[in-house]
Amino acid sequence: MDYGPKKPLATYWPQHTLAALCLCVVQMPVTAQTTGSAANLTKDVFRPLDVTVNGAKAGDWVLLERTGVLYAPQAAFAEWRVSLRPTAQSIDIKGQPYFALSSVPGYEAKIDFSTQSLALTFSPETFALTLKQEESLARPKLDPVLPSAFLNYDVNYSASQFAGTPNAYNLGALVELGISNNAGLLTSSAAGRNLIRNGGDNASPSWVRLETTFTRDFADINATLRLGDSITRGSLLGRNVYFGGVQYGTNFALTPGFISQPLPTISGLSAAPSTVELYVNNVLRQTTNVPTGPFTLTNLPTFNGGGEARLVVRDLLGRETVVTQPFFSSAQLLAPGLQDWSVEAGALRRDLGIVNAAYGAGFASGTYKRGLNSELTLEGRAELSRDLQTLSAGVIGVLPGQLLGRAALMTSRTAAQGSGNQWLLGAEYSQNQVNIGLQIQSASIHFRQLGLDSLSQPVRLQVAGNIGYFTDSKNSISAGFAVIDRFDNTRVSTLTAGYNLRIFERGNLQISAGRAIDGVAANFVGMTLSLPLDTNIITSAGLMRRSGQFSSYATATSNTLEDKTIGWRVLASQQADSQTQTNRAEAGLTYVSRYALLNGDASSSGGQTAIRLGASGGLLAADGRLFASQKLSDSFALVDVPGYPDLNISLGGRKLARTNANGVAIIPRLAPYQANAIRLDTNELPISAEIDNIEQTAVPASRSGVKLLFASRPGRAALLTLQFDDGEAAPVGATLHVGDESQEFYVARRGQAYLTGLLATNRITLKWQGQQCVLDVTLPPLVNDDIARMGPLVCKGVQR
Q: How far apart are CA 189 and CA 177, in angstroms?
């Protein structure tokens, strides 16, 4: 029955009927003071009702009925998430404000006295906004760093033979030494060349230092400090250059799942508790539940580009409302208020990989970016040295038509060249199945910046553009062009085009073509077909014509997998020019062990044969021991399972290593600052194994180690059958102790007790009602990991 805001109860039932139906309602005189008016004395009726609001359960509430109008306490409106009219006036009931339900816009009510229930309906707009956003990921607690030192190596040996020339041999190596502890990580790398005498070359053996860097992460503030060799942070116009010195700046990778770009928000309105389905470009991305009222979704998948979002709001009665809204987001933008910055100071590094330490002039630089709002990000950069000063400003923003625009201007001043400038303009469009981009960059002849030699001229004009179209069937077509115009009047212009076609279920056919309009004349057209034969074998073949010359190849590859430690590849190719035709054949093998990766291949081409052998891996000194391992390029864990050799250890479900004879294994490839689930293979644990847990979580620092101890109880298990002097089974509840250990075992039915942690010979004490006896138990030899079954063993001197 309707219980509207302007109709008293007598409209629906006569007063005597109301009195008959509301026997449970207590009527009592209450002194009610209406706000802003004189006090008066009236009879009020308090009604306990089971309330639903727009179809959703809202709990049991005691409402006030006065002269046919229903009132609710102020707390009820807050819990129901509805807003009162600004002009709503309250009445005071024993110091608590009550408001008429009609104070909420769109109020309707139906009351059922037989069930003491009240169904309320309010306008959806009156409900508080529901914000559905991604819950902030709790930063996992970082495990203590295991002090360690590691040595990574990558060694390659080659031998080649060519008709009429001496055999040539070469041995090269890349090595990296690292030391990590709670203070940070220190690494140094070097390259070795000509490490054995070459039969046809008199080059001397040499070692060249590459990079030496100390790194310390400050995960709580997303910042990283680097001392030594590093690379400057780039910007819209600023270049990345190698240098030696100090660098400090933000590092969002220290927080797992951190999203720096602004995420789109999509809003809607639900008239009742509803299920919301989000379709992005006609693809269902997520489903969520929302209560009555307006809602905003910010827990959306990470998007890049523009598109159209469609919300299907389906309420409890199956009624649907569809809301369509365009959106735009880009990884080049920063979330509102987010800052990304870096400062560097030191000396430019020159001839990296050629000489040990060639450093140039000192400098200082800084880059700062900030997201002003979800559609605008600003950046600035400055570079300062004795002979060079630069200053730049840039902006990345959303333009009309869902375009992402970029603009930047950099000015420079040098003692030798004077003033110069460089500017950039660019825009890109990425929506649904279309990608379009255009960028123009120009510099004056006197412009200089870090990394640009004073004698080298900048590029006068660079123009590049591209367009791509992707179909629902994952086919695509693309085209692009590029123009480079230099101050020495040389000009290069190219056009490219490509078509990608899905073949069968997983195959792929790619056709590409290009033409050089200016500069060196060069035209090419090519076709590549890739076709997987099964889950691990991939075949491909290609044909190309470049400047009148043809080349072709065919190859097949089988990669190593979790349960497949050997991979292989074969290749056959042919290349022809105007005079000769060269055939080439290659074959290679790869073997992955717990200690290293080994590879070897052989090739034959144009009368020359070559053999190459390689090995890569790592050595680790940690926990007072030395281990051989795969290359330690990421974080790692030292897993200790005492007493369980040759046990499989997996990371996130992928088997990575086995324990050695001491029950220890090194698990590489852990993700830093994230929770890595490391698990023992229960299928390989003996039946009698006693381990506190079979899975632990490791949260390591960057390129550092943690130790995980899987505590276990050593020994064997046995099922003993015990009896007393009277020949009857020992009673249920009698306790057993092994040696001096405090752990208790209990006798079960038929006098049987299951004990673990037993040695070859054991002294076992049975206790019952203040009495005890001692049993000497020698276990039989272990066969197939079976549990020993022994007895009956007689416990003498204990009365029942």
A: 6
Phi, psi for 221 (deg, rounded to 5): -120, 10
For residue 265, what are its two tokens? 């928000």
Count Cβ atoms below 10 Å from residue 579 Cβ, excluding itself: 5
Q: Is the pLDDT of residue 433 over 90?
A: no
CA distances from 376 to 306, 422, 535, 677 (A): 15, 22, 45, 39
Distance CA 186, CA 622 (A): 15
> ω before 264 within 30° of 0 (cis)?
no
CB 733 within 8 A of CB 745: no
pLDDT band at residue 42 using 50, 70 and 90 as cut-offs: low
Given pLDDT bands bounded at 50, 70 and 90, which one contains residue 318? confident
Cβ burial, residue 339 (10 Å; 0-12/13-18/19+)? exposed
| Residue 28 clears pLDDT 80, i.e. is over it | no
Beta bridge partners of 401: none
Q: For every residue of 493-523, which 3-state class applies, written as one string?
A: EEEEEEEEEEECCCEEEEEEEEEEEECCCCE
Number of H helices, E strands in the chain: 2, 56
Kindly tell me the sign of the dihedral angle through the C-alpha atoms of 642, 643, 646, 647. negative
* DSSP conformational letter for 201: B
Pairing status of strand 206-218 against strand 745-746 = unpaired
3-state secondary structure 414-447: ECCCEEEEEEEEEEEEEECCEEEEEEEEEECCCC
User: Could you tell me if 291 and 56 are in contact, meaning their C-beta atoms sit under 8 angstroms apart?
Assistant: yes
Three-state secondary structure string covering 112-145? ECCCCEEEEECCHHHECCEEECCCCCCCCCCCCC
* pLDDT tens readout for residues 137-183: 567 889 999 999 999 999 999 988 887 677 788 899 999 999 999 99
Q: What was the pLDDT predicted at 281?
A: 73
Cα–Cα nearest to 384, from 374, 396, 373, 392: 392
- What are the tokens at 694? 């079979």
Q: Tell me the pLDDT tens digit for each residue of 725-743.
A: 888 999 999 999 988 887 8
What pLDDT band is residue 133 in, cutting at 50, 70 and 90? low
Which pTM value belongs to this model? 0.76
**Residue 238 three-state SS:** coil
Which residues lie closer than 8 Å to 46 by C-beta, 6 or more apart? Answer: 25, 26, 28, 62, 63, 64, 65
Which DSSP helix (H) or strand (E) runs through 672?
none
Q: Check: CB of residue 239 under 8 Å from CB of residue 449.
A: yes
pLDDT of residue 353: 86
Which residues touch 558 (CB under 8 Å, ≥6 apart)?
536, 537, 538, 567, 568, 569
The DSSP call for residue 20 is: H
pLDDT band at residue 602 under the 50/70/90 scheme: very high
Q: Please tell me the distance from the alpha carbon of residue 634 to that of residue 672, in angstroms, as a whole number.
A: 8
Question: In degrees rounded to 5, what are phi and psi of residue 320?
Answer: -115, 140
**CA distance linking residue 796 with residue 800, whole number of Å:** 11
Cα–Cα distance for residue pair 276/268, rounded to 1 Å: 9
Nearest to 644 by CA among 685, 604, 674: 685
* CA dist., res. 16 & res. 11, Å (int): 13
| DSSP β-bridge partners for residue 744 | none
